[in-house]
Write a structure and sequence with these properties.
By secondary structure, the protein is of the alpha/beta class. The chain folds into three domains: 5-85, Orthogonal Bundle (Arc Repressor Mutant, subunit A), CATH 1.10.10.10; 92-164 and 265-293, Periplasmic binding protein-like II (D-Maltodextrin-Binding Protein, domain 2, 3-Layer(aba) Sandwich); 166-262, D-Maltodextrin-Binding Protein, domain 2, CATH 3.40.190. The protein contains ten helices and 15 strands. It has helices at residues 5-16, 19-26, 30-44, 60-85, 106-118, 172-177, 221-229, 239-242, 245-248, 277-293, and strands at 49-50, 57-58, 92-98, 122-128, 142-146, 157-164, 166-171, 191-193, 197-203, 206-212, 216-217, 234-238, 251-253, 259-260, 264-270. Strands 4-3-5-15-6 form a five-stranded mixed β-sheet, with helices on one face. Strands 11-8-12-7-13 form a five-stranded mixed β-sheet. Belongs to the LysR transcriptional regulatory family. One of its GO terms (molecular function) is DNA-binding transcription factor activity. Keywords: DNA-binding, Transcription, Transcription regulation. Residues 1-59 form the HTH lysR-type domain. This is LysR family transcriptional regulator.
């Protein structure tokens, strides 16, 4: 039987881009990675990668072979996942990546509570980050993500949770000091955001382009929400996050008759087509709770 390990190493090398990164993922030395690739090239008399650049670039033959190797790697991962599924009980560590703002989300909190109470053999590890994490390179089992780049990675499997909308929020105290009657008033306000704001707002047949080039930069959504609650300025928050009971009394929607166009689709994404028992449990809980609450 032909050995497939060099093919799997080659698939990882194309994903990681360097010998060192591939070696770290596989738990071997960079020299061992190089030997696997050289063995393939020598055995089949082909050149698979160009080694003249800092980041290894596949040749045309390497690119074509890489597509097959990637499928092979997926099949191997799915096979081991199927073996995990054969267990009678969902158990073990599960790593979940999610945006910081979801720490206040009712559906996620309910999911976490049910997971702890109903499945004590599953140990959740929560990785909060507002950057999209690479599911192919880390230990992440499930990532909850939304926005225009949520599904950019062609290798992930997406499970739709909800559709939601952006809303402009501010405290009642802030609005008392800075009245906002029309969309034009928004341009002179203090804004909290993690990037420049550019949205189309609509009320009936009327349109307004909201563009804020220099908001107060907040690297975390949860920090933005906390500062917003302190009356520092305006912020864009998903309507699902605004529905938290403790936020309702002190925060209100600004210009609720105007709708921000372009909704946000929220997904739970996984790196594998076949799900382990523990991943299936968490996915089902997420779907049930997001459907229930929203």
């Amino acid at each position: 039987m032909q050995e497939i390990k060099p093919l799997l190493v080659f698939a990882h090398l194309l994903q990681q881009g360097t010998m060192q990164a591939t070696a770290a993922i596989l738990g071997i030395t960079p020299s061992a990675v190089s030997q696997h690739i050289s063995r393939l090239e020598q055995q089949y008399q082909v050149k698979l990668i160009n080694r003249s650049t800092r980041r290894l670039v596949p040749t045309e033959v390497g690119r074509v072979l890489g597509e097959y190797c990637h499928k092979l790697l997926q099949d191997v991962n799915d096979t081991f996942t199927a073996l995990e599924n054969a267990k009678t009980e969902a158990q073990g560590d599960i790593h979940i990546a999610l945006a910081s703002g979801l720490a206040n989300n009712r559906a996620f909190i309910a999911t976490l509570q049910q997971l702890i109470e109903q499945y004590p053999a599953i140990q959740p590890h929560l990785h909060f980050s507002d950057d999209l994490q690479d599911l192919q390179q880390g230990k992440i089992d499930i990532a909850i993500r939304g926005g225009e780049h949520a599904l950019d990675d062609p290798n992930i499997v997406a499970h739709h949770l909800i559709s939601t909308q952006w809303q402009i929020l501010a405290t009642t105290d802030y609005l008392a000091k800075h009245p906002i009657k029309t969309p034009t008033d928004l341009l002179t306000q203090t804004w909290l955001a993690y990037q420049p704001i550019h949205f189309l707002m609509q009320k009936g047949k009327d349109n307004f382009v909201l563009h804020i080039e220099h908001p107060i930069y907040c690297s975390q959504l949860l920090a933005q929400q906390k500062l917003l609650q302190q009356g520092i300025g305006l912020g864009l928050v998903l309507e699902t996050d605004f529905q938290q009971e403790r936020m309702r009394q002190e925060i209100q929607v600004v210009l609720p008759e105007w709708r921000i166009m372009g909704g946000v689709e929220l997904y739970a994404v996984t790196p594998h087509r076949v799900q382990s028992a523990k991943v299936s449990v968490v996915l089902n809980l997420l779907k049930e709770n997001f459907t229930h609450y929203y």
